[in-house]
Amino acid sequence: MKINHLKISLLSLACLLLSGCGQKSEMDKFIDSLMSEMTLEQKIGQLNLHSAGGFVSALRVTEDDENVQLLRKGELGGIYGTGNVEAMTEYQKIALESGAGIPLIFGMDVIHGHQTTFPIPLGISTSWNLDLIEKSARIAAKEASACGINWVFSPMVDICRDARWGRIAEGSGEDPYLGGEIAKAMVYGYQGRDDEFAVDEVMTCVKHYALYGGAEAGRDYNSVFLSRQEALNGYMRPYAEAAKAGAGSYMSSFNEFEGIPASANKYLLTDLLRDSFGFDGFVVSDATAVVEMVAHGLGDLQEVSARALQAGLDMDMNSDGFVGTLRKSLDEGRVSEADIDRACRRILEAKYKLGLFDDPFRYLDPSRQAEQNWTEENRAFAREFARECQVLLKNDNSVLPLDRNARVAVIGPFADAASEMAGCWASSNHSNEFVTIYEGISEASAAKVTKAEGSWIFNDPEMEESIKYGLMKIFAPNMSFGKVHETPKNVLLAEAVAKAAASDVIVACVGELNNMSGEGASRTELTIPDAQRELLMALKKTGKPVVLVLTTGRPLVLDWESENMDAILVSWASGAEAGHAIADVLYGEVSPSAKLTTSFPRSVGQEPLYYNHKNTGRPHPDYEPYRKFTSCYTDELNGPLFPFGFGLSYTSFEYGPVTLSKDEMSHDGEIVASVEVANTGNFDAKETVQLYIHDVYSTSTRPAKELRGFEKISLKAGEKKTVEFRINAETLSYYNHSLEWVCETGDYEIMIGPDSERLEKAVLTVVD
Ligand code: NOJ
Fold first, then answer.
1. How far is Cα 467 from Cα 473, in angstroms, rounded to an integer?
2. What is the largest CA-CA distance in the chain?
3. What is the C-alpha separation between 413 and 18, in angstroms, rounded?
4. Which of 55, 80, 108, 109 to mutate to test the pocket of ligand 1 (most atoms within 8 A of CB)?
5. Which of 153, 160, 209, 255 to mutate to test the pocket of ligand 1 (most atoms within 8 A of CB)?
6. Residue nearest to atom 10 of ligand 1 (CA)
7. Lowest mean pLDDT among 247-261, 477-491, 532-546
8. Which residue owns the Cα nearest ligand 1 atom 4?
C-alpha cells in the first residue's frame, strides 16, 4: 500500500481549517475590512522588513533614521535586530500614527537562548534530550519577548553533511529524523503548544528554507545540487515537521535549487511548503536574498522581485525590492493585485495571531526586560542543559572524572575566555560574564588550579585578526582594532609548559573561535589551528595526562589528538554556564551523556561525510584498507574517526538482543521492537538508545542505515530497562522515485544500539 503524503497533508489542512473555523473567520473578517481601507502602497509597505541598523542595543530613534522615514510613508511592515524596548516603542508609535496605522512586527536572531545563552545549536542537538531542548526555547521566548521581540529567526533546521560549512554550528547535524524531532521541540518551546500566543511566547521563523546546508563543497551561499528525491529524503523532514508543529513563518534561503534561487522557487515555496507540508503562515526572504538574485543572474531587481512574489515569497528582508518595484510591476502587468494582497494578508494574519492589533504594545513592557532576563533560574537551567551537551570521545585509563585533590593546569587560549563560550549568533549583553572553563574548574577543585593562555589561535596573526574582526570591519571599516596578540608565542608557550609540568593533570582548552563557524565561515582545513596543535604537542611532552576540552562550532579532524590525548571532551561553545557545566562533567558530578549528531572525519578529504549514505554497487567496509575497484580511498579509510550517535559515559551499558513482537507486519499494522539495556558500571547515567532501519531491497536505493527513533533514558548503576519502539508503515516510509511517500513490502533490518555502528539487528517483513 502506498501512502500519499500530499493527500494526507491536504486532508489534515482541511480538518485544521474546519476546526479553527470560528476564530479563523473572525480574523478573516477583521483583515478583510482592514485591507479594504488600505492603499496599494500601504499593502506593499507591509511586505518590507528592515534591520534596525546593526545589532544595536543603545538605539536612538530620530527623524533622520531611514526606518522612521519609511514608517512615515507607510513603507515598513517590520524591523529586526534590536532588543531595545524604548526604541521599539518609539517605532511602534510612529507606525500607528502613519499610513494605515498597522503595528510593526519585531524580529531577532534568537538562536540558542537570548540573554542567557545556551550551547550552540549543534551542541544542543547532541543532548538528544527533547524536553530540555523545548525548555531552552521556552526560556529564550520568555527572555526575548521581555525585550520586545515577538518573532524569532529560529529554529535553524538545515541538515548538513559537510563539516566545512560554518553554519553546521547553527543546526542539528546530519540526520533528518533527529533534525525533525528537534525542529518540533523548538517550535513548541517558542510558540507554545496551542494556537494562542501568550505574551511570553513568540512566533518562529524556520530557516533557511530550503536545503541551504547542502551548499556544494561546504562553501557558504554556494549552489545546491540534489535530486528532488534526495532532497526530500535526506533534508526536508525538519522543515516539514516544523510546519506540522505550527511554525508561524519561514525564511527563504540564499542558495539555488534546480537552477532557481530558493527565494523565487515556486516548487519550494508553494508546491512543497504550502501544498504538501500544509504551512499557512508567511515567508520572509533571508537578508538581501531578493536583490542577490540579480547576481545569481535571474534578472534586474524588478524582475527578481516579481518572480519572488509570484513564487510565494511574502516579505522582503533588506533588499527594498518589493517596496521599490512592485507598484511598477503591477502597472506593467508583471504581478497581479491578488499576488500583493495574498502576501499582505499573510503578514497581517501573523500580526493578528500575535495579538498586535488588540495591543500593539503588548510585548513592549520595559519592566519585564530586566526582571525576566539573565535570571538565576535561567542560568541554573543553562548549566543543567550544557552538562547534557558535552560529548566524551575518549577517556583512556579513566583519567576522567578528575580527582578533586589533583592539581590542575588549565591551559590554552580558551581556558579563560568568557565571550568565546558564547558561540556564533549569540546576542547576549552578558557574554563577558559567562563562566570560563578555568573559573568552573577553580570552583570545583579542592587543590591548586593554575591557568595559562599557552598559544595564539593561529601562527598567522593576520588570519586571526581577519576572522576575529570580520563582522566589525563591515560595520566600521575605518576602525582600527590593534594587534590581536601582544605577547610573543614562545613566551606564552614557556609559561604554559612550566605550569603544566607543575600540575598533576592538564586540561587543554583549544579549538575554534566563535567567528570560525556560523555564517560566512567555511573552512578547507578541519584540524585544530596550527598554533594550538603545537601547544598540545608541547603539553604532551610534559608526560602529564592531558584532557582536551574542545571548543568548536563543527566536527574537527582529531587524528593526532585521538592518538595522543588521554581524554577528549567536545564542549562546542557551551554558553553562559559553560565553565560550570564542563567542570560538573570533568569532576563526575554528572556522567557525560551527549552523543554526536555529525560524523567526525579522519580527513577533510572525506567530506561530505555522513552515516546515512548509500551503499553503491561496490561497497567497501568502513574500516578496511584500500582495495582496488571498490568504493574507497587509496590513502584513508571510509569510516569516520567518531561516528554519528557516538559518545562515551563514565559507566558502561550492555545491550541485549533486539526482539520484535512479530516478525511480519501488514501496512496498517504495528509491531514493537524492544531491547534491554543494563547499566553495568558504577555511575548513575543517562543513555540514548537509538533505532535504525534498513530496507534490504527497495524500488529505489536506500541509505545503509537511517535513524527512525531514539529514547534517552536514565539508569542507576546496576539498573536495567527495556526500551520499546513502536514501528509502523510511517516508520519505514520514504519518498520513492515518483516522490510518493511509501512503505514498500519486503524485509527491513531493525537495528538498535548506542550509536550508528554498534547495533543489534532483527529482520521485519512487511507484507501486503
Ligand atoms: C542572514 C542569516 O542567513 C540569517 O540566518 C539571519 O536570520 C538573517 N541574516 C537576519 O539576521
1. 10
2. 79
3. 59
4. 109
5. 153
6. 287
7. 477-491
8. 286
Q: How close is the Cα of 297 to the center of ligand 1, in Å? A: 22
Pocket-forming residues, ligand 1, beta carbon under 6 Å: 109, 153, 207-208, 286-287, 519
Q: Which residues of 457-480 are buried (b: 16+ CB within 10 A; e: fewer)?
A: bbeebeebbebbbeeeeeeeeeee
| pLDDT over threshold 90, residue 219 | yes
For residue 11, give every residue at least 6 positions away whose Cβ sits within 8 Å of its Cβ, in sequence order, or none: none
135, containing H or E segment = helix 130-146
Strand 741-742 with 734-735, pairing? antiparallel
Q: Which of 80-89, 180-189, 319-328, 554-563 has the lowest mean pLDDT?
A: 80-89
* Cα separation, 128 vs 327, whole angstroms: 49
Cα–Cα separations (whole angstroms), residue 666 to 189, 662, 691: 36, 11, 20
Mean pLDDT for the chain overall: 95
| Active-site pick, 175, 286, 314, 316 | 286
**Which residue carries 603545537 as its cell?**
534
Closest alpha carbon to 130 in 184, 205, 194: 184
| Helical (H) or strand (E) element with 561 | helix 559-564
Which of helix, strand or coil describes residue 446? coil
The single-letter code of the amino acid at 177 is Y
CA distance 151 to 274: 20
Q: What is the CA radius of gyration of the chain?
A: 26
Measured between alpha carbons, how far is 251 from 154 in angstroms, rounded to an integer?
9
Q: Which helix (H) or strand (E) holds 83?
A: none
Residues in contact with 36: Cβ distance below 8 Å, sequence separation at least 6, in sequence order? none
d(CA 70, CA 202): 25
Whether 339 is a known active-site residue: answer no
Distance 379 CA to ligand 1 centre (A): 26
Which of 207, 250, 283, 425 has most ligand 1 atoms within 8 Å of CB, for mutation? 207
Q: Looking at 381-537, which runs of residues are DSSP E strands?
A: 391-395, 408-411, 449-452, 505-511
What is d(CA 691, CA 756) in angstroms, rounded to the nearest whole number? 9
In whole angstroms, what is the distance from residue 33 CA to residue 38 CA?
A: 9
Question: What's the CA gap between 269 and 284, in Å, rounded?
Answer: 11
Q: Residue 558: what pLDDT?
A: 98
- Asked if the model's pLDDT at residue 472 lies above 60, the reply is yes
The string of pLDDT tens digits covering residues 12-25 is: 444 444 444 445 68
> Using one digit for the tens of pLDDT, what is the confidence trace for 283-298?
999 999 999 999 999 9
655-668 pLDDT, tens digit per residue, is 999 999 999 999 99
For residue 558, the CA-to-ligand 1 centroid distance in Å is 30
Distance of alpha carbon 362 from alpha carbon 553, whole angstroms: 36
Q: pTM for this one? A: 0.96
Closest ligand 1 atom to Cα of 212: 3
- Whose grid coordinates read 524485509? 747
218 in the Ramachandran plot: left (φ > 0), alpha (ψ -120 to 50) or beta?
left
* Percent of the chain residues past pLDDT 70, beyond the cut: 96
- Cα gap 587→443, rounded to integer Å: 11
pLDDT digits (tens, 9 = 90+) for 394-428: 999 999 999 999 999 999 999 999 999 999 999 89
- Region 142-148: mean pLDDT is 98
In this prediction, residue 7 carries a pLDDT of 36
Q: Which pLDDT score, from 0 to 100, does residue 305 have?
A: 98
Band of pLDDT at residue 9, cut at 50, 70 and 90: very low
DSSP letter string over 726-767?
A: EEEHHHH-EE-TTS-EE--SEEEEEEEESSSSS-EEEEEEEE
Tens digit of each residue's pLDDT (9 = 90 or more) over 692-706: 999 999 999 999 999
